[in-house]
Design goal:
Blueprint (H helix, E strand, L loop, with lengths): L1 H4 L9 H11 L9 E6 L11 E5 L2 E8 L4 E8 L3 E9 L2 E8 L4 E7 L1 H20 L6 H12 L9 H4 L27 H16 L5 H12 L3
Antiparallel strand pairs: 1-2, 2-3, 3-4, 5-6, 6-7
Helix pairs in contact: 4-6, 6-7
């Protein structure tokens, strides 16, 4: 057990409090969940049963001893529930708090300053990781997909008609004796269809079949629908 808690005793944490918390958390951690940092209250007076805050790669857990330390309450918040984190340094320790997307504010006070700073830094890192891993069909994911399209290798166009998309502001040439299917308006296309259309525009630009200004206009129209 000593080796297990040793890495959490670098900033004046109470060894007994850390040992008690880690022993109880062993049964609560999810698959692939790892403890990143533990902060422990240190009030001016003797704190027999301090509250603690545990940060893992999946959530924040508030640990509150009760019944003279014989039991403990755990309240957790996953990183995707958290809107922002804050640290307020006071004369006697610091207060770490965070707000949730449901406008709830949670705080824990009397955290030693160096622990509060480490908690704040770790929390920011986890929130940044969450933002970088934005889910598909979100604005961040759409922008990333567009960048990927713009960096793709240029493919040689062998059949102009196969990649030329229908543009509402232009009149398509009518071929004699050919029946034309009605194409859905751009505003009714799915995310995948919009990405495919933007890829086609990029191919046209790279092969000199449309101008940069035309491509930028098409790109702006498609992005506005994502």
């Amino acid at each position: 057990m000593k080796e297990q808690i040793k890495k959490f005793l670098n900033e004046e944490q109470d060894p007994k409090a850390i040992e008690k918390i880690t022993s109880k958390l062993n049964d609560l951690l999810m698959k692939n969940e790892e403890i990143g940092y533990i902060g422990v209250q240190k009030k001016p007076a003797l704190t027999v049963f301090p509250d603690s805050i545990v940060l893992t790669n999946k959530r924040i857990i508030i640990c509150q001893p009760k019944n003279l330390g014989l039991s403990m309450d755990f309240i957790d918040y996953t990183w995707d529930q958290i809107e922002g984190t804050f640290v307020k340094e006071n004369i006697l320790g610091s207060e770490f708090s965070f707000s949730t997307k449901t406008d709830m504010t949670v705080s824990i006070d009397y955290i030693p300053k160096i622990q509060a700073r480490k908690i704040f830094t770790y929390a920011k890192e986890q929130l940044d990781i969450l933002k970088q891993g934005a889910l598909p069909n979100t604005p961040a994911a759409s922008e990333a997909a567009v960048e990927e399209i713009e960096e793709m290798e240029t493919e040689e166009v062998t059949n102009y008609a196969e990649i030329m998309p229908a543009v509402p502001s232009y009149t398509e040439p009518v071929q004699e004796n050919t029946a034309h299917a009605v194409e859905k308006p751009t505003s009714e296309l799915t995310q995948d269809e919009l990405f495919a259309k933007l890829q086609n525009y990029k191919k046209l630009l790279d092969n000199g079949l449309i101008l940069q200004g035309e491509y930028d206009a098409f790109k702006k129209e498609i992005l506005s629908l994502m």
